[in-house]
């Protein structure tokens, strides 16, 4: 039994073999399934790889150790020859990312690794114009493992260019729109826009001002129309007509602008982009009030011009652009024998020339058709054309043809027959003038505007000693005078003659001068501008008058010296007289005071008379001294405030005894507003007292009774007026002398009046003397408040 297997063992072996077979069969089936699964996965992977390769996005895995997993397309996008396997290989010298972009991408990847923060970058590889947009985020664990970052790259070159272009076009459109909006808003005339409902949707600032509204929003909200209905057509209906017509519609209507009625040209323009549906109606209104006024004024000007041309002596005709006659004034009709139908039918110039030839109103020419065509071509000439026509009857015509801007022609004909006849007469007159010039006492020369000698007489030639051929060459003034300087006692004075001639020819001003020749003769010369642009030089021998003038000047100097001696004598004599007078006055005062004992009544009267005479003589000496100083210009005025009323009262009191003794009524009439002035009180007192004394003394002999002297004074803010008047015999000679600033004779109070005039002038005032024989004298003095 030991050599054979037991059934249990056999069963176990068979079971094991069966299990092994089953395991093999399961393994084979499992392998077949896995093979199929692998083939499916490989196919799927290949399809996904194809899809990724065909996709505009390129996936790139950056692992934690900065290795890169990507297709070869990454190298092509970055301009790298080989596909990068490490992050540092993304940066090259002339290709790949630039250092700045490489660092930016590194920092973004670090941020995604540390905080799983997604990012987006836009980079431009070196050496190309490609733009790559990178979207990055932490990679899933199944894709790249921990610390990996998944990048999705897309080529945005075309998109960025399209976007840049779109932005540029948008910016241009927005700029154009803003400029257009600004232009519309700043337009000086009203502009508006109506939407599809024909209601106002937009108005500019000028529109708001025109309708006197607060704002554009208020205009749109209230629907305020600029144009009032005209002939039953409102502004909205006019816009509707423009929309139906599909073209701009224009009308000229009256419109109220800022409260003023104006004529406006209103235009409605339908807006349809590229021939599409009308999206609205734009409108604007232009003020044509001035234009219409100018048109009316132009019509009135044309009518007035033709009326004026009818009154001219020159013959004038106007031809229109069609070469037809549209107007001819009366002289033109008479000169060329035109009928009314010639103008009404607008006959062309060519037909008129034919008619004028038959009537003898054109010059005789060899080839008339060619001549006529040449004159018809006047319409196309670029400027005025002038001709002289000699007619068969001896008439001389000067014809001017001026093309007009509208293509017409202005024809002017002037009869110069008389002028031709006058030219012959003028030649005769020129010969007479030449003969007259040669026989004048003055030396005469005429210089042209360019400075050349034009005419001269024989006296001019002989005066300067120039031969006839030299003058006949018409030399310039600088050349001519430059060679004549040695004729003068001072040769450099020749430039004065040249300057005088230049002033007359160029500046058109008359000038004069004096020169002396080397032989001692004196000449006055003058240059006179002539109407024709020339200059006339006249030279007159004044040698005799200069000698007389020299003699008179010497005599005048002698008189002035004598006058100075007289002034010095008066001044010295005044001082010399004052010394003994002071002694007399002093001794007289001692006698009055009783130093020599008590005086008898008769002695007292004598002493009083002596003191009165001393006072009078002292005043006269002061007057003479002041007069001498005034004439010498050395009169000194000591200014201080002066009470005018007190000064005048004292003057009246001083003269009162004399007036009473002479039986003269002395009257004072002074206002209350005299105030004070700045002046020399003693001299002003003597001034008024002297005038009153003169008035009393001159009035007393003439009037035994009824003599009257009046002192009147009044003042204002500017000054004081003092008037001394009398009803005496008058002194016209003294008044006339003072009015001329002269010194009158002593018989008429001349010294007193002359001194008064000097004192008043020294105080900055004025003095007026009015006198009439037999009626009295009035002296008026005006003194200012201040200096």
Could you explain how this protein is built, in words?
- By secondary structure, this protein is of the alpha+beta class.
- It has 24 helices and 27 strands.
- It folds into 5 domains: 55-155, PAS domain (Beta-Lactamase), CATH 3.30.450.20; 187-287, Beta-Lactamase (2-Layer Sandwich), CATH 3.30.450.20; 312-415, 2-Layer Sandwich (Beta-Lactamase); 429-540, 2-Layer Sandwich (Beta-Lactamase); 637-784, Histidine kinase-like ATPase, C-terminal domain (Heat Shock Protein 90, 2-Layer Sandwich), CATH 3.30.565.
- 21% of the residues are buried.
Q: Indicate how many domains the architecture comprises.
A: 5
Classify the secondary structure makeup into a structural class. Answer: alpha+beta
Average pLDDT for all residues: 79
How many β-strand runs? Answer: 27
Tell me the CATH superfamily of the largest domain: Histidine kinase-like ATPase, C-terminal domain
The main sheet comes to:
5 strands, antiparallel
Radius of gyration: 62 Å
Q: What would CATH call the class of the largest domain?
A: Alpha Beta
Low-confidence stretches: 744-750
The helix fraction, in percent, is: 40-55%
Task: Please sum up the structure shown.
The chain is an alpha+beta fold and 787 residues long.
List the helices and strands and how they pair.
Elements: H1 7-54, E1 57-62, E2 68-69, H2 73-78, H3 99-115, E3 119-123, E4 132-138, H4 141-144, E5 149-155, H5 157-186, E6 191-194, E7 200-203, H6 205-210, H7 216-222, H8 235-245, E8 249-257, E9 260-271, E10 280-287, H9 289-311, E11 315-319, E12 325-328, H10 330-336, H11 340-344, H12 349-358, H13 368-376, E13 385-390, E14 396-403, E15 409-415, H14 417-438, E16 443-447, E17 453-456, H15 458-464, H16 468-472, H17 477-482, H18 494-507, E18 511-516, E19 522-529, E20 535-541, H19 543-593, H20 601-632, E21 640-643, H21 644-661, E22 665-670, E23 676-679, H22 681-699, E24 708-715, E25 719-726, H23 732-739, H24 750-762, E26 766-772, E27 776-784
Parallel strand pairs: 22-24
Antiparallel strand pairs: 1-2, 1-5, 3-4, 4-5, 6-7, 6-10, 8-9, 9-10, 11-12, 11-15, 13-14, 14-15, 16-17, 16-20, 18-19, 19-20, 21-23, 24-25, 25-27, 26-27
Helix pairs in contact: 12-13, 19-20, 20-24, 21-22, 22-24
EC number: 2.7.13.3
Domain Histidine kinase: 572-787
Catalytic activity: ATP + protein L-histidine = ADP + protein N-phospho-L-histidine
């Amino acid at each position: 039994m030991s050599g054979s297997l037991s059934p249990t063992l056999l069963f176990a072996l068979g079971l094991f073999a069966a299990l092994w077979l089953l395991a093999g069969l399961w393994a084979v089936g499992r392998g077949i399934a896995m093979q199929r699964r692998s083939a499916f996965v490989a196919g799927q992977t290949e399809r996904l790889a194809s899809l990724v390769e065909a996709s505009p996005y390129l996936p790139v895995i950056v692992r934690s150790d900065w290795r890169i997993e990507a297709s070869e397309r990454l190298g092509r996008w970055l301009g790298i020859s080989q596909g990068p396997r490490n992050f540092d290989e993304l940066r090259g010298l002339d290709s790949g990312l630039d250092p700045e972009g490489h660092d930016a991408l590194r920092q973004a990847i670090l941020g995604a690794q540390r905080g799983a923060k997604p990012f987006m970058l836009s980079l431009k590889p070196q050496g190309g114009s490609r733009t790559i947009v990178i979207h990055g985020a932490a990679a899933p664990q199944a894709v790249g493992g921990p610390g990996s970052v998944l990048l999705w790259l897309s080529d945005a070159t075309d998109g960025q260019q399209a976007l840049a272009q779109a932005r540029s076009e948008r910016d241009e459109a927005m700029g154009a729109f803003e400029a257009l909006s600004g232009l519309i808003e700043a337009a000086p005339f009203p502009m508006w826009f109506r939407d599809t409902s024909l209601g106002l949707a937009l108005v500019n600032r000028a529109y708001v001002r025109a309708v006197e509204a607060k704002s554009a929003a208020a205009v749109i909200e209230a629907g305020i129309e600029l144009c009032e209905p005209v002939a039953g057509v409102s502004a909205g209906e006019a816009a509707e007509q423009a929309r139906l017509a599909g073209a701009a519609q224009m009308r000229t209507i009256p419109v109220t602008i800022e409260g003023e009625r104006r004529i406006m040209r209103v235009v409605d323009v339908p807006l349809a982009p590229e021939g599409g549906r009308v999206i609205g109606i734009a409108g604007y209104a232009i003020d044509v009030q001035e234009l219409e006024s100018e048109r009316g004024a132009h019509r009135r000007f044309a009518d007035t011009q033709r009326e004026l041309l009818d009154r001219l002596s020159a013959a004038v005709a106007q031809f229109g652009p069609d070469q037809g006659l549209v107007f001819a004034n009366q002289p033109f009709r008479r000169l060329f024998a035109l009928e009314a139908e010639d103008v009404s039918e607008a006959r062309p110039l060519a037909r008129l020339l034919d008619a004028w030839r038959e009537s003898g109103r054109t010059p005789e020419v060899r080839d008339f058709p060619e001549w006529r065509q040449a004159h018809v071509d006047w319409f196309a000439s670029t400027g005025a054309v002038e001709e002289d026509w000699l007619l068969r009857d001896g008439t001389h015509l000067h014809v001017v043809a001026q093309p007009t801007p509208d293509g017409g022609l202005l024809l002017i004909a002037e009869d110069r027959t008389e002028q031709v006849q006058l030219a012959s007469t003028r030649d005769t007159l020129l010969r007479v003038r030449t003969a007259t010039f040669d026989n004048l006492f003055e030396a005469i020369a005429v210089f042209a505007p360019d400075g050349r000698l034009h005419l001269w007489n024989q006296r001019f030639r002989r005066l300067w000693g120039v031969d006839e051929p030299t003058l006949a060459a018409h030399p310039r003034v600088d050349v001519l005078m430059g060679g004549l300087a040695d004729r003068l006692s001072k040769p450099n004075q020749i430039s004065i003659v040249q300057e005088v001639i230049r002033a007359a020819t160029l500046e058109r001003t008359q000038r004069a001068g004096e020169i002396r020749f080397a032989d001692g003769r004196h000449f006055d010369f003058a240059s006179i501008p002539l109407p024709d642009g020339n200059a006339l030089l006249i030279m007159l021998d004044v040698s005799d008058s200069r000698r007389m003038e020299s003699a008179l000047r010497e005599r005048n100097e002698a008189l002035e010296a004598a006058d100075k001696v007289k002034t010095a004598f008066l001044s010295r004599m005044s001082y010399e007289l004052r010394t003994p007078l002071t002694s007399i006055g002093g001794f007289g005062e001692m006698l009055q005071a009783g130093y020599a004992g008590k005086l008898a009544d008769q002695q007292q009267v004598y002493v009083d008379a002596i003191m009165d005479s001393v006072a009078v003589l002292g005043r006269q000496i002061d007057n003479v001294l002041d007069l001498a100083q005034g004439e010498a210009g050395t009169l000194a005025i000591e200014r201080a405030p002066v009470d005018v009323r007190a000064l005048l009262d004292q003057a009246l009191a001083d003269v009162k005894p004399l007036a009473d003794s002479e039986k003269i009524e002395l009257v004072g009439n002074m206002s209350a507003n005299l105030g004070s002035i700045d002046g020399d009180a003693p001299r002003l007192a003597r001034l008024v007292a002297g005038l009153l004394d003169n008035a009393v003394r001159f009035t007393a002999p003439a009037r035994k009774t009824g003599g009257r002297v009046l002192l009147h004074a009044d003042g204002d803010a500017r000054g004081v007026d003092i008037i001394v008047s009398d009803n005496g015999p008058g002194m016209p000679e003294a008044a006339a002398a003072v009015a001329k600033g002269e010194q009158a004779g002593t018989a008429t109070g001349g010294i007193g009046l002359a001194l008064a005039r000097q004192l008043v002038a020294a105080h900055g005032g004025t003095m007026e003397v009015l006198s009439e024989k037999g009626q009295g004298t009035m002296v008026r003095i005006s003194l200012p408040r201040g200096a």
